[in-house]
Amino acid sequence: MPHYPATPPSLSYEVYPPATPRAREALNTTLDALAATHPDFVSVTYSGTPERRRTTLELIHQILDHTRLRPLAHLTCVGESADTLTDLVRHFISLGVRGVLAMRGDLPADPNGERGEYPFARYLIELIRRVEAQNAVALGAGRLSIGVAAYPVRHPESPSFQHDIEVLLGKQRSGADYAITQVYFRPEEYTGLVAAARTAGVSIPIVPGLLPVDDVRRLERLSAMTGVAPDPLLAAALEAARTESERTRIGVDFAASLARRALEDGAPGVHVYTFNKHRGATELVERLELPRRRADARLDSAARVGA
Ligand code: FAD
């Protein structure tokens, strides 16, 4: 078994709300398969459109009521009023959610589109901490854990990588407990982010976000969305692969090698982007030979990443 400095490393997955009844059925199978690996939490993506907001809340409900998984609710502040955000955070608390991934969200494509009351994620973090203080009774002695986004490759709107580091420090000062990274394709991008963050005074855990990608078109779409250029060798290998299982293996191999390097360099755990498919995600986790995960190990590592 490989030796990883952070023992036991945390394990989490990202899923998104299904758009059709068929996708909902497929997601049920995915959630069962993910639950079998005993993750610390499963994060549920968020988008501010009313329909997507409803499906996000439904999925959180489903995870809480019908699985053994613990949900982490994503929340974005772009286009939203402080009142709406306050209501949503209160609603999360009333459902039993205890972890929020607080982000700004992508700006509307239309320059005249509604940007909302808060221009940056750090204001959302502060709002969540205020709502938490008002709901201390509902939370018992507990506390909401707040995660934030971090960028191994410069955020597309940011003037520099160093600026991103200062923004991450600001999020920590506003009350963030840990960060999860955007996808990246070179091991040194994660280690470079952590080194620069530590030098700047960021002390919260920074969990690498990993994608066992099995589809070259998805890789291209992701690159357009995030501004992270796809690895050319990975893209070529996926393009040349003939079968789905070959593509899965290629994506898992690539993500496993990134994850192993990050864990050997001291990463506190791994967060796996699943795109609602379990095969690549669970194969990746198996490949990493994470120390045996049990319910009690889950609590230890969850406490470390603040989930
Ligand atoms: P911020 O930290 O507010 O930064 C946004 C931009 O503003 C950056 O360029 C930053 O450098 C700049 N900035 C920040 N503060 C300042 C300041 N004080 N002065 C000047 N410039 C500043 N999006 C969704 O819509 N839904 C999701 O569910 C979702 N999940 C995600 C999960 C993860 C793990 C990650 C990494 C990203 C996710 N995203 C999601 C995407 C995210 O919303 C975008 O990357 C968004 O563009 C930035 O969000 P942020 O929270 O990092 O913003």
UniProtKB/TrEMBL annotation:
Its cofactor is FAD. The keyword 4Fe-4S does not apply. It catalyses: (6S)-5-methyl-5,6,7,8-tetrahydrofolate + NAD(+) = (6R)-5,10-methylene-5,6,7,8-tetrahydrofolate + NADH + H(+). One of its GO terms (molecular function) is methylenetetrahydrofolate reductase (NADH) activity. Keywords: FAD, Flavoprotein, Oxidoreductase. Pfam families: MTHFR (PF02219). One of its GO terms (cellular component) is cytosol. SUPFAM superfamilies: FAD-linked oxidoreductase. Pathway: One-carbon metabolism; tetrahydrofolate interconversion. It comes from the Bacteria. Gene3D superfamilies: 3.20.20.220. The keyword Oxidoreductase applies. Belongs to the methylenetetrahydrofolate reductase family. This is Methylenetetrahydrofolate reductase. It comes from Galactobacter caseinivorans. The lineage of its organism: Bacteria, Bacillati, Actinomycetota, Actinomycetes, Micrococcales.
